[in-house]
Amino acid sequence: MTGSIAGIGSSFPPALDQQEAWDGFFAAHYGDSRLARRVWHTAGIDRRHSAVDPRVEDLSGAGTGVRMERFAELAVPLACDAVAAALRVSGVDANEIELLTVASCTGYVTPGVDILVARELGLRASVQRLHIGHMGCYAAIPALAATADAATARGKVGVTVCVELTSLHLQPPTDDLEQIVAHALFSDAAAAAVIVPDAPGLEIVDVVACTDTSTSELMTWRITDLGFRMRLSPKVPAVLDGHVLAVTVDLLERHGLHIDDVARWAIHPGGPRIIDTVARRLGLDVDDVSASRDTLRRHGNCSSATTLLVLEELSARSDIGAGQYVVAMAFGPGLTLYTMLLRTR
Length: 345
Hints:
By secondary structure, this protein is α+β, with helices and mostly antiparallel strands. The protein contains 10 helices and 13 strands. It folds into 2 domains: 3-197, Peroxisomal Thiolase, Chain A, domain 1; 202-344, 3-Layer(aba) Sandwich (Peroxisomal Thiolase, Chain A, domain 1). The radius of gyration is 19 Å and the shape is globular.
């Protein structure tokens, strides 16, 4: 018995054009800085999604308590919509769900999002819940793995949902390049996957992780009095460059596979340089990374939800034959690289 992704669904706050966001708020926020303008226009994004539109409501001076109140208000309906969409795609009824796994690094509320989503969707009182916090952009992969393990070991029907509201953590004006990059890239979304034992879909075959703790300070997410503040060093792609090939080869060789045996790639689009680094190190062509680039262009970097969005994009293209392999990978604090091998069935 193995767990398979039977359906993926997503939900987004209102779209915000990248250029309009710059013209309507961020240009003034950064004093029309040439550096900020260049970062903004080379982020590879046409539009993002923003639960809180900074042109309407500027949270940059708001306390963390206010931001967490908004998280509780906004995250639950967004997550519910994503789960409902995934259930429709999979054909699974909400009453069949036995495990709900929630991943988020952008807010806290107790009772947690897992409990509140279960209540709003009318899930059974006996539903088991798992909350994964503060893993950042790679959280979807261990979340999927945990849900798939429950399907494999105990025959559980599960849902994984990632919900991130990065717009709640707008920081005060600064000339700090790392803050400018973070605000240029990150976006809001929820994405969910229904995982069923021995079902048609994307079978979760294996997972490999690698954490380089010597570089842990290059990407951080600190709680401050003014929300959560990110450090995102420009050295991150270089660290990824040093690990991605070995980790990917390790994952594939466990199953007698090589890079050429992979039909599709779901690479977390942390930014254009991340995609470029992975493509170069693995020898991938333009088509191999097109789903990742398209996801970044249309949605921005939605933290943990993004890997599921790329897998959803690949599924929508409906050109993956039975028995073919897909590799998903994502990166985040640690610095950590997670890779997942999937097979169509």
